[in-house]
Fold:
Amino acid sequence: MTDVTALLDRPQRLGVVQTVLNNNPRLSEDMAERIVDEAVKFTATCATFPDARLRPSRIVDEGWHALILHTRLYHGLCEGLGRFVHHAPEPPDPSRHNPAELTRTQEMITKAGFSVDDALWLAPTDQSIAVAASCEHSPPGPEGTCSGDCSNTGKN
Structure:
């Protein structure tokens, strides 16, 4: 299995963790770290499988949003992965939830060489891990959505 912590150095990772904590003051630092790690795995998997149309869970999306806010870090991560992973947010709508898409995304994360933190891949209605993100996204269009639409670095 690939060590996700090797994709961001410790200060970078802690900065993103702090962003998750700032947005979710009731989360433990350990949970925020897990969320960030899963978001990095998701990003790396999207870059590895650019045509897979992967989707984050609501919880993983919280980490992905925090990661993207660190623009230089996110750009550098994507450059290191060989592809820029785009995000085009849209209004939340839990009615678009498709459990099979989350399962497929987890399978692709495993195929990319990472372990999956299953506890972070819950349906949007499951509030056992409360985060600020409330996303559940529609099927991707040609412009992409929060599904991890990828393009070659430098062509974004």
User: Anything to note?
Assistant: The helical segments are 10-23, 29-48, 58-69, 71-81, 99-111. The beta strands are 83-85, 150-152. Residues 4-136+143-152 form one domain. The first strand starts at residue 83 and ends at 85.
